[in-house]
Design a protein that fits this description.
This protein is α+β, with helices and mostly antiparallel strands. Among the domains are: 40 residues, no CATH class; 106 residues, 2-Layer Sandwich (Alpha-Beta Plaits), CATH 3.30.70. The protein is 59% helix and 17% strand. It has seven helices and eight strands, in the order αααβαββαββαβαββ. The strands form two sheets. It has a six-stranded mixed β-sheet. Strands 1-2 form a two-stranded antiparallel sheet. A hairpin with a 2-residue loop joins strand 4 and strand 5. It is rod-shaped. Keywords: Membrane, Transmembrane, Transmembrane helix.
Length: 260
Protein backbone atom coordinates (compact mmCIF):
# COMPACT_ATOMS: atom_id res chain seq x y z
CA UNK A 1 0.00 0.00 0.00
CA UNK A 2 1.45 3.30 -1.09
CA UNK A 3 1.77 6.36 0.99
CA UNK A 4 -1.07 8.00 -0.87
CA UNK A 5 -3.34 5.08 -0.10
CA UNK A 6 -2.54 5.39 3.58
CA UNK A 7 -3.31 9.07 3.57
CA UNK A 8 -6.62 8.40 1.87
CA UNK A 9 -7.55 5.70 4.38
CA UNK A 10 -6.67 7.98 7.23
CA UNK A 11 -8.82 10.77 5.75
CA UNK A 12 -11.69 8.31 5.23
CA UNK A 13 -11.45 7.13 8.83
CA UNK A 14 -11.39 10.70 10.16
CA UNK A 15 -14.50 11.55 8.16
CA UNK A 16 -16.26 8.46 9.48
CA UNK A 17 -15.38 9.41 13.05
CA UNK A 18 -16.64 12.99 12.51
CA UNK A 19 -19.84 11.66 10.96
CA UNK A 20 -20.45 9.39 13.97
CA UNK A 21 -19.77 12.31 16.34
CA UNK A 22 -22.35 14.33 14.43
CA UNK A 23 -24.86 11.50 14.72
CA UNK A 24 -24.23 11.22 18.44
CA UNK A 25 -24.73 14.97 18.90
CA UNK A 26 -27.84 14.80 16.79
CA UNK A 27 -29.27 12.03 19.04
CA UNK A 28 -28.38 14.03 22.16
CA UNK A 29 -30.14 17.05 20.69
CA UNK A 30 -33.21 14.97 19.86
CA UNK A 31 -33.30 13.65 23.42
CA UNK A 32 -33.05 17.18 24.84
CA UNK A 33 -35.86 18.35 22.55
CA UNK A 34 -38.03 15.45 23.62
CA UNK A 35 -37.40 16.21 27.29
CA UNK A 36 -38.19 19.88 26.67
CA UNK A 37 -41.42 18.90 24.98
CA UNK A 38 -42.36 16.68 27.91
CA UNK A 39 -41.68 19.51 30.37
CA UNK A 40 -43.67 21.97 28.21
CA UNK A 41 -46.52 19.51 27.84
CA UNK A 42 -46.67 19.10 31.63
CA UNK A 43 -46.14 22.81 32.39
CA UNK A 44 -48.78 24.26 30.09
CA UNK A 45 -51.74 22.49 31.76
CA UNK A 46 -50.29 23.45 35.13
CA UNK A 47 -50.05 27.11 34.11
CA UNK A 48 -53.53 27.00 32.62
CA UNK A 49 -54.79 25.42 35.83
CA UNK A 50 -53.21 28.15 37.93
CA UNK A 51 -54.67 30.83 35.63
CA UNK A 52 -58.11 29.19 35.79
CA UNK A 53 -58.02 29.02 39.59
CA UNK A 54 -56.79 32.61 39.75
CA UNK A 55 -59.51 33.84 37.38
CA UNK A 56 -62.17 31.90 39.28
CA UNK A 57 -60.97 33.39 42.57
CA UNK A 58 -60.95 36.89 41.05
CA UNK A 59 -64.42 36.38 39.55
CA UNK A 60 -65.74 35.13 42.90
CA UNK A 61 -64.17 38.07 44.74
CA UNK A 62 -65.54 40.53 42.19
CA UNK A 63 -69.00 38.95 42.37
CA UNK A 64 -68.98 39.02 46.18
CA UNK A 65 -67.78 42.62 46.14
CA UNK A 66 -70.57 43.53 43.68
CA UNK A 67 -73.13 41.73 45.84
CA UNK A 68 -71.93 43.52 48.97
CA UNK A 69 -72.02 46.89 47.17
CA UNK A 70 -75.52 46.13 45.88
CA UNK A 71 -76.71 45.20 49.38
CA UNK A 72 -75.11 48.39 50.76
CA UNK A 73 -76.92 50.46 48.14
CA UNK A 74 -80.21 48.75 48.96
CA UNK A 75 -79.65 49.36 52.67
CA UNK A 76 -78.75 53.03 52.11
CA UNK A 77 -81.74 53.49 49.80
CA UNK A 78 -84.03 52.01 52.46
CA UNK A 79 -82.63 54.42 55.07
CA UNK A 80 -83.17 57.40 52.76
CA UNK A 81 -86.67 56.15 51.96
CA UNK A 82 -87.47 55.90 55.69
CA UNK A 83 -86.17 59.43 56.21
CA UNK A 84 -88.33 60.71 53.35
CA UNK A 85 -91.36 58.95 54.86
CA UNK A 86 -91.05 61.01 58.06
CA UNK A 87 -94.23 62.98 58.66
CA UNK A 88 -92.63 66.41 59.11
CA UNK A 89 -89.77 68.29 57.51
CA UNK A 90 -88.09 68.68 60.90
CA UNK A 91 -88.03 64.91 61.49
CA UNK A 92 -86.85 64.28 57.94
CA UNK A 93 -84.12 66.91 58.20
CA UNK A 94 -82.80 65.61 61.52
CA UNK A 95 -82.69 62.00 60.30
CA UNK A 96 -81.06 62.69 56.91
CA UNK A 97 -78.43 64.96 58.51
CA UNK A 98 -77.65 62.36 61.19
CA UNK A 99 -77.20 59.61 58.57
CA UNK A 100 -74.90 61.87 56.57
CA UNK A 101 -72.93 63.00 59.63
CA UNK A 102 -72.36 59.40 60.78
CA UNK A 103 -71.10 58.44 57.31
CA UNK A 104 -73.88 55.89 56.75
CA UNK A 105 -74.83 57.80 53.62
CA UNK A 106 -72.66 60.22 51.68
CA UNK A 107 -74.34 63.28 50.20
CA UNK A 108 -72.39 66.45 49.45
CA UNK A 109 -73.60 69.67 51.06
CA UNK A 110 -75.13 71.13 47.86
CA UNK A 111 -77.19 68.01 47.12
CA UNK A 112 -78.21 67.73 50.77
CA UNK A 113 -79.40 71.36 50.77
CA UNK A 114 -81.40 70.78 47.54
CA UNK A 115 -82.98 67.63 49.00
CA UNK A 116 -83.94 69.41 52.22
CA UNK A 117 -85.25 72.47 50.38
CA UNK A 118 -87.42 70.37 48.06
CA UNK A 119 -88.99 68.60 51.07
CA UNK A 120 -89.41 71.86 53.00
CA UNK A 121 -91.11 73.73 50.12
CA UNK A 122 -93.33 70.75 49.30
CA UNK A 123 -94.49 70.48 52.90
CA UNK A 124 -95.10 74.19 53.35
CA UNK A 125 -97.08 74.44 50.10
CA UNK A 126 -99.13 71.32 50.85
CA UNK A 127 -100.01 72.68 54.28
CA UNK A 128 -101.40 75.77 52.57
CA UNK A 129 -103.38 73.89 49.93
CA UNK A 130 -104.75 71.02 52.05
CA UNK A 131 -106.29 70.80 55.51
CA UNK A 132 -106.44 74.52 56.24
CA UNK A 133 -108.91 75.89 58.74
CA UNK A 134 -110.72 79.22 58.95
CA UNK A 135 -110.14 81.47 61.94
CA UNK A 136 -111.24 84.96 62.85
CA UNK A 137 -108.27 87.29 62.30
CA UNK A 138 -109.36 89.83 64.92
CA UNK A 139 -108.63 87.62 67.92
CA UNK A 140 -105.13 86.56 66.89
CA UNK A 141 -103.89 89.60 65.09
CA UNK A 142 -105.91 92.55 66.32
CA UNK A 143 -106.60 93.54 62.76
CA UNK A 144 -109.64 93.92 60.57
CA UNK A 145 -112.35 91.35 61.13
CA UNK A 146 -112.61 88.72 58.42
CA UNK A 147 -112.24 85.02 57.80
CA UNK A 148 -108.73 84.00 56.77
CA UNK A 149 -106.95 80.68 56.43
CA UNK A 150 -104.34 79.99 59.07
CA UNK A 151 -102.23 76.85 58.64
CA UNK A 152 -102.62 74.29 61.44
CA UNK A 153 -99.88 73.82 64.04
CA UNK A 154 -98.43 77.25 63.41
CA UNK A 155 -100.63 79.19 65.83
CA UNK A 156 -100.70 82.96 65.55
CA UNK A 157 -97.11 83.30 64.38
CA UNK A 158 -98.00 82.91 60.72
CA UNK A 159 -100.62 85.08 59.11
CA UNK A 160 -101.28 83.40 55.79
CA UNK A 161 -104.79 84.39 54.64
CA UNK A 162 -106.07 83.20 51.27
CA UNK A 163 -109.08 85.50 51.30
CA UNK A 164 -110.19 86.63 47.85
CA UNK A 165 -109.08 90.22 47.32
CA UNK A 166 -108.72 92.65 44.46
CA UNK A 167 -105.66 94.11 46.19
CA UNK A 168 -102.26 92.80 45.09
CA UNK A 169 -100.97 90.37 47.71
CA UNK A 170 -97.41 90.66 48.94
CA UNK A 171 -95.65 88.24 51.23
CA UNK A 172 -92.79 89.01 53.62
CA UNK A 173 -90.51 86.95 55.85
CA UNK A 174 -90.20 87.96 59.49
CA UNK A 175 -86.69 86.75 60.29
CA UNK A 176 -86.68 87.71 63.96
CA UNK A 177 -87.94 90.03 66.63
CA UNK A 178 -86.30 91.78 69.55
CA UNK A 179 -87.21 94.24 72.25
CA UNK A 180 -84.21 96.41 71.40
CA UNK A 181 -83.00 97.80 68.10
CA UNK A 182 -79.49 96.32 68.43
CA UNK A 183 -80.89 92.78 68.39
CA UNK A 184 -82.88 93.48 65.24
CA UNK A 185 -79.85 95.07 63.60
CA UNK A 186 -77.88 91.88 64.31
CA UNK A 187 -80.47 89.84 62.38
CA UNK A 188 -80.46 92.58 59.72
CA UNK A 189 -76.69 92.15 59.25
CA UNK A 190 -76.99 88.35 59.01
CA UNK A 191 -79.67 88.72 56.34
CA UNK A 192 -77.48 91.05 54.30
CA UNK A 193 -74.49 88.71 54.58
CA UNK A 194 -76.67 85.81 53.46
CA UNK A 195 -77.39 87.69 50.24
CA UNK A 196 -80.80 89.27 50.74
CA UNK A 197 -81.02 92.75 49.24
CA UNK A 198 -84.39 93.90 50.55
CA UNK A 199 -84.15 93.86 54.35
CA UNK A 200 -85.95 96.26 56.68
CA UNK A 201 -86.44 96.72 60.40
CA UNK A 202 -90.02 97.23 61.47
CA UNK A 203 -91.33 98.36 64.87
CA UNK A 204 -94.57 96.52 65.57
CA UNK A 205 -96.25 96.05 68.95
CA UNK A 206 -93.14 97.33 70.81
CA UNK A 207 -90.92 94.77 69.10
CA UNK A 208 -88.30 95.41 66.43
CA UNK A 209 -88.79 92.89 63.60
CA UNK A 210 -86.27 92.08 60.89
CA UNK A 211 -88.30 91.69 57.70
CA UNK A 212 -87.02 90.25 54.43
CA UNK A 213 -88.36 90.63 50.91
CA UNK A 214 -91.64 91.47 49.25
CA UNK A 215 -92.88 88.48 47.28
CA UNK A 216 -95.65 88.25 44.69
CA UNK A 217 -96.24 84.54 45.36
CA UNK A 218 -96.38 82.49 48.51
CA UNK A 219 -94.15 79.80 46.95
CA UNK A 220 -91.36 82.32 46.27
CA UNK A 221 -91.56 83.39 49.89
CA UNK A 222 -91.42 79.77 51.08
CA UNK A 223 -88.32 79.06 48.96
CA UNK A 224 -86.50 81.95 50.63
CA UNK A 225 -87.93 81.03 54.03
CA UNK A 226 -85.93 77.80 53.80
CA UNK A 227 -82.71 79.82 53.38
CA UNK A 228 -83.65 82.17 56.22
CA UNK A 229 -84.34 79.31 58.64
CA UNK A 230 -81.15 77.51 57.67
CA UNK A 231 -78.86 80.55 57.80
CA UNK A 232 -80.43 83.26 59.95
CA UNK A 233 -83.20 82.25 62.34
CA UNK A 234 -85.00 78.90 62.70
CA UNK A 235 -88.10 80.64 64.05
CA UNK A 236 -88.61 82.83 60.94
CA UNK A 237 -92.12 82.88 59.43
CA UNK A 238 -94.10 84.35 56.54
CA UNK A 239 -96.75 87.10 56.75
CA UNK A 240 -99.03 88.79 54.28
CA UNK A 241 -97.91 92.41 54.26
CA UNK A 242 -101.31 94.11 53.91
CA UNK A 243 -102.77 92.27 56.89
CA UNK A 244 -99.63 92.13 59.03
CA UNK A 245 -99.17 95.89 58.95
CA UNK A 246 -101.88 97.90 57.21
CA UNK A 247 -100.16 101.26 57.53
CA UNK A 248 -96.75 102.51 58.60
CA UNK A 249 -94.51 105.53 58.78
CA UNK A 250 -90.76 105.77 58.20
CA UNK A 251 -88.32 106.89 60.89
CA UNK A 252 -85.49 108.25 58.74
CA UNK A 253 -83.21 108.80 61.73
CA UNK A 254 -83.28 105.22 63.01
CA UNK A 255 -83.95 103.89 59.49
CA UNK A 256 -86.91 101.77 60.51
CA UNK A 257 -90.57 101.39 59.55
CA UNK A 258 -93.14 101.84 62.29
CA UNK A 259 -96.51 100.11 62.13
CA UNK A 260 -99.28 102.56 63.00
Amino acid sequence: MSENDLEFKKFELDQKIKFEEIEIRKKELDLKLKEQRKISAATIPLILGILTIGYSAFSLFHQNKSNIELEDKKFISSLIAKAIEEKTYLEFSEKIEALNYLGIISIDSNKLAKLKKARFVSEEISIGEVDSSLFNMTKDFGGEEGMVKIFPNYGSKINLPFKESSEPIKWMIVAGGDKNLDGAQFEFGKAKKTGFNKVDIWLKENSYRTVIGSYNSYQSAVEDLFIVRESINKTAYIVRSNSWCKDFEVDSVRKIKICT
